[in-house]
Amino acid sequence: MAAEPNAPTSVNGKAPFELKSASLPVVALLLRTTDTYAVRQALAERFVNEPDFFDNDPVLIDLSAVREDPAAIDFTGLIGTLRGLKTIPVAVRGGSAVQTEFARAAGLSVAPEAAPVRAAAPAAPSVEIREVVREVEVVREAPAAKTVLIDKPLRSGQQVYARGADLIVTTAVNFGAEVIADGNVHVYAPLRGRAIAGARGDVQARIFTQCLEAQLLSVAGIYRTGETDFPKEVASRPAQIRLEGERLVIEPLAAH
């Protein structure tokens, strides 16, 4: 007997696909003006020296700040600029009915308004990376782990937080970047940004680096900035940072 026309096809007794909801990280580009020429110019100037800042990241264009502006938005031109920066514009949100229709005509989908933030579940070890560039924010989360490993250089404006875990970074933490862990922080490369260990008060936590050039060091809330030169025995050399009572101790990392 022939199968009914609308009957689902099965593979080994199972449906060949499933439809599930999913949450994906995106870059949110908040427009402050409908002058897309100005926006495109500002984006080009911001990333002219960082052509690989993005890596095919999906982009959501947030229109909430210009919702009441009657001026037309050149979505086609804006999409072209964003694609040139190695991003993938996928949707808009927060716009007026007219803005939304023009966005659809340019090939963008319409995302719902942001849902209310719910109370977080009890903390589990995780890592969170945040990048904030003008009105662009990226949030990425990695699976829970007792030790979090980062093997890509951290640029200015990026933040890594190893929640409930130690953090190991095998590449440079550049000026303006920030590495945070509830446990220890290990940087097997130059540490030029900010490093915070024992973020939740662990006084036994330590910071280790192969090259100390940090902007700021902190263990369990006791901190020191790099505005004052580090002692020559640790400056630009392997070092460890720990607490001794209420005092932050910076000492050479002994070779074995």
From TrEMBL:
Pfam families: MinC_C, MinC_N. Residues 150-251 form the Septum formation inhibitor MinC C-terminal domain. Residues 17-86 form the Septum formation inhibitor MinC N-terminal domain. InterPro entries: CAP/MinC_C (IPR016098), MinC (IPR013033), MinC_C_sf (IPR036145), MinC_N (IPR007874), Septum_form_inhib_MinC_C (IPR005526). It comes from the Bacteria. Transmembrane segments: none annotated. GO terms for biological process: cell morphogenesis; division septum assembly; regulation of cell division; regulation of cell septum assembly. Keywords: Cell cycle, Cell division, Septation. Interacts with MinD and FtsZ. Belongs to the MinC family. Cell division inhibitor that blocks the formation of polar Z ring septums. Rapidly oscillates between the poles of the cell to destabilize FtsZ filaments that have formed before they mature into polar Z rings. Prevents FtsZ polymerization. This is Probable septum site-determining protein MinC.
